[in-house]
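Reviewer 2 asked us to include a model.

Predict the structure of this chain.
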Amino acid sequence: MAVLNLSLLGDFQPVFAADQGSQVTRACPSGMVYIPGGIFKIGAGAQLPEEQAADAVSVSPFCMEAHEVRNRQFADFVATTGYVTVAERPLSSNQFPGLTAAERRPGSVVFQPPHVAQPFEVLSWWRWTPGADWRHPEGPGSDLHGRDNHPVVQVAFEDAQAYARWAGRSLPSEAQWEFAARGGLRDRIYAWGNTYSPIRANTWQGEFPVVNTAVDGFVGTAPVGTFEANAYGLFDMTGNVWEWTEDWYRVGHEGMAHRLDPLGAAEQESSDPREPGVAKHVIKGGSFLCSPQYCSRYRPAAREAQSPDTGTSHIGFRLVSASRLPL
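Predicted model (structure tokens):
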């Protein structure tokens, strides 16, 4: 387990004193990293409207998994519990009364790049694909061979919550996630500084969505831990796959300033102006589909809204737990 690099915490105001050396590694269960807690500015007002900042947000110390949850870990959960994910269940006839039984068969949303020689509409690269699920991330014909150590995808919010309960942990709040992703750096655009680098994270290189030059070595997901960790010892907080958080989405961070361990909007207050009235959760971190020309939401401050009942081929998760400080 990585040990906290305290030299990068100079710009933060710690809420609680961070332990050092072997005490830090004993504060969290195996596979988790100790996050010391502190006071920070969430969001980035100069970037996108939905990132409107809130000052003096306080986060208590906690533990966070160093890696995104992997396929082999999710497979252990399913084998132990018999859990069936949302994508493996037929669509509800009550929710979709106008669909036939064939149209309601299990499936999920998959990225399919458009043909370079044909015109295409924005978002047309997302296709509802019957048979797509966590075992078949790109639909029938795909599988997890050689991907045991890749992040699990095609998991809806409900699926991530079920895994968290089984593991005795929880999904992070947006404040926890963003504080941890910054790795002790203050007012930096990226988790490593202010300059974008195509080889420091699994993102899209080339003309999105038609050409991915794979300068970083990957067209799709990468094995967790392939790229350098941030200063807290957390891997893939930038790119690879988006990650679910507990917070319901609304534009900006209203009501979070000067609060300890805040959660965002309640469900009934959730608002995405693109789909008014549809409650969505905040996802963080960007994915292998984010590029400087499109999305570019692989910054700690960046955020996106996602319907909780929908998994995709580029959304996963990681978990947190309360820290147990040694005597």
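The longest helix spans residues 71-81. The radius of gyration is 19 Å. We have added this to the supplementary material.
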